[in-house]
Amino acid sequence: MSKIKLLCLPYAGGSAQVFLDWKRDLHADIELIPVELPGRGKRFGEPLRSDFNELVEDIYQSIKNEINSGPYFFFGHSMGSLIVFEVMRRLKVENQPMPMCCIFSGKNPPHVSLRNHIHELDDEEFLAKIFGYGGIPAEMLTNKELASIFLPIIRSDFQAIELYEPPAEREQMDCPFIVFYGTEDSYVSTDLVKEWSLYTTGGCEWYAYNGGHFFIQEQREQVIKQLNSILDGIKTRL
Fold it and tell me: Would you identify the family this protein belongs to, as annotated (predicted)?
């Protein structure tokens, strides 16, 4: 049997390179495909996309070949979850192959808007706000050279997600959903996260992890163990 592709999309300000170290612990029949966003990592020289629709179109175009060459599933964390959701809507419209499963991590469902818009704050205030999310190196607050590289990326990402408009109707996907969330994540509601089920006819499961917004780093071993278990379930349906 061919490998099942795992397409991973990162959080705001992040690079797909954060998923590379998962490879050594994922089952051998999972082909890890970190999906890089424009303006960072191996795509550092490309222009950033601060318009969410343009960002989704970019990712859709970049993965079309991957999803047409065998079974696959998505994993998106935080902003990556929202990108995955909108890419799936595009796949449905274009009658493209849908994933065997879709895993949304660290994100409220699309109709739950962000409480605050911070992308217009000055650099100092903006840094202080995003530092509260965790996952941001402490030297970012003191190293101006590092901040000058990182700030435009994460500001662009926050502009994209803060100005995102969810679909007027809660369109449903014919695809199983799985939702990961941190029990101490102050940016995700343990009640509202259940409403991801409104967007699928394929059933929805939830897995809670100890930790905050970046529980995928704090509970890396448990997260990968669950991904391997999900893969085992998918293989039985192929």
Answer: Belongs to the thioesterase family.
Distance CA 233, CA 238 (A): 10
What residue has token string 């991590």?
105
- DSSP label of 164: -
Interacting residues of 191 by C-beta distance below 8 A, sequence separation 6+: none
Q: What does the alpha-carbon distance between residue 25 and residue 6 come to, in Å, rounded to a whole number?
A: 13
Domains and CATH numbers, the chain: 4-112+169-233 (3.40.50.1820)
| Whether pTM exceeds 0.90 | yes
CB atoms within 10 A of CB 170: 12
**DSSP string of 165-198, one letter each residue:** ---SS-PPBSS-EEEEEETT-TTS-TTGGGGGGG
Classify residue 34 by burial, with Cβ atoms within 10 Å: 0-12, 13-18, 19+: buried
- State how far the Cα of 74 lies from the Cα of 85, in Å rounded to an integer: 10
